[in-house]
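Private note to self, pasted from the team thread so I don't lose it. Backbone tokens:
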């Protein structure tokens, strides 16, 4: 296999590659705080259920397994509700990101046009210098030719 990475749908998204796991975790925690809460409640209910199994308290074990089911249902409801609630916000963020990207592309294009215009001006200056040098060289050659002709006439 070659050393090149495989193509990805995230190639154009630099935030995906620049964001580490911890910052992504905290970002997602801020975006949807109820999901980690539901996961924590589920884990707590499982932990308490396993402790009550060890002690042999069947009633508390059943209560904790029911609590686990409720916590899982809460987590799923938070996921679904969060996706509906934040859907509009995510679409707006995408629109803003697209506008920023378009603005950067226009600025890049304008910078490229300025660069091309500057190069064009430099080329015109160089061409003008070359034309003047060519004319001067031609004048010198004509003057030398006249001088040779005059020298040849005087020598006769």
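Design output:
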């Amino acid at each position: 296999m070659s050393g090149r990475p495989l193509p990805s749908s995230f190639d154009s998204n630099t935030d995906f590659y620049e964001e580490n796991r911890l910052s992504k975790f905290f970002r997602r925690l801020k975006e949807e705080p109820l999901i980690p809460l539901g996961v924590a409640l589920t884990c707590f209910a499982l932990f308490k259920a396993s402790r009550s199994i060890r002690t042999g308290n069947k009633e508390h074990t059943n209560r904790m397994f029911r609590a686990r089911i409720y916590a899982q249902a809460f987590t799923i409801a938070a996921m679904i509700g969060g996706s509906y609630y934040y859907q509009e916000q995510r679409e707006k963020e995408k629109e803003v990101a697209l506008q920023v990207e378009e603005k950067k592309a226009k600025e890049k294009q304008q910078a490229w046009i300025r660069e091309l215009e500057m190069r064009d001006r430099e080329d015109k200056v160089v061409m003008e210098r070359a034309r003047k040098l060519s004319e001067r060289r031609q004048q010198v050659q004509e003057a030398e030719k006249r001088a040779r002709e005059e020298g040849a006439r005087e020598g006769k």
